[in-house]
């Protein structure tokens, strides 16, 4: 069995200049890898026909098994992908009448006027096969060019995913049916640096044949992705599970989840398991913690709400923090952080609470309380605890890191793991 190769092109000026991240590339990479493909590259291409065509021609010259192009299939002047593909494969564009009829019917169903240039949406290179868009009108197509299957899809992520799952995957599975199967899995890690995770990973994968591992780091978190290729799918799955189990053992309590898990989903499940609810009190994170929690669909059964008490007065009036604590210790202190958590639990009627207060910068730091100093408080049925953390990076990185630490602190409290950070001894419970 041979290993098929693939290239991915993402078209758009906004991708090249960084205004928007390439959300499609990662999804398509995972799809192709799951089918046994080796990804030879992901390229960002500007909205210029000659550049798209020349880069596609260079990619096709290497005779990869699959080329997937995302974006640039709409009606605006900068949607030049169909023209560029036609140039690259040497085939003229033609209107696919069945696609045109379907697009015009959709406009009528919506009660909207059919645009004058609508036929352009139905144009595909001669010899290509249309790919129906079940959500919108910007259709895609597939075309064979020598040994290569080229797939062109719209760039809107929701539309692209729907088209891949409904129409493109069956074609890819048939095309790549003779390849060696690959199984891929991920472990999510919090509280370790990338270099620390890499050292532990090396002990697991060193010398393993047909195995690839990669790390992706965000503030306070590392994702480890391992791919194993074997002659049989069951064999690949067994080898992968064995490696993931060894790595989880090496990582210990820092490994919080697998594959689609997030810190929020893991914490939410732990709360549900103990029939507990959660409230948050935020200062330095300014609502980012509550937003991270509410990004999880269905979390309303355990998350009651939050208070962003950025000023001292708001900490006192909204959370019931004693004025004397603020005046004696300052807003950035373990004492105030603890009182904020207690206040959030009391005011929101929650069984658990998280609080954050700190100096996110770039200004405002002192010798005693430098930029990056963050206190995180937790309240659970098992007690109240505050930890001190000194974080690095710019303002955004510090705040994002603080959110991850806060969620991980609650995770650890709920499962009886030791807390990260420096424990802070505080006085009697305020209020």
How would you sum up this structure, described in words?
The protein is of the alpha/beta class. The chain has 3 domains: 5-175, Molybdenum Cofactor Biosythetic Enzyme, Chain A (3-Layer(aba) Sandwich); 182-258, 2-Layer Sandwich (Alpha-Beta Plaits), CATH 3.30.70; 263-423, Maf protein (Alpha-Beta Complex), CATH 3.90.950.20. It has helices spanning 13-16, 23-34, 49-61, 81-89, 97-110, 157-175, 194-205, 233-251, 263-273, 288-294, 312-319, 323-329, 334-348, 395-415; strands spanning 5-11, 38-45, 66-70, 93-95, 123-125, 129-131, 140-145, 148-153, 182-190, 211-218, 221-229, 255-258, 278-282, 303-308, 352-358, 373-380, 383-390, 422-423. The strands form 4 sheets. It has a 6-stranded mixed beta sheet, sandwiched between helices. A 6-stranded mixed beta sheet has the order 14-13-15-16-17-18, sandwiched between helices. A 4-stranded antiparallel beta sheet has the order 10-11-9-12, sandwiched between helices. The longest helix has 21 residues, at 395-415. The radius of gyration is 26 Å and the shape is globular.
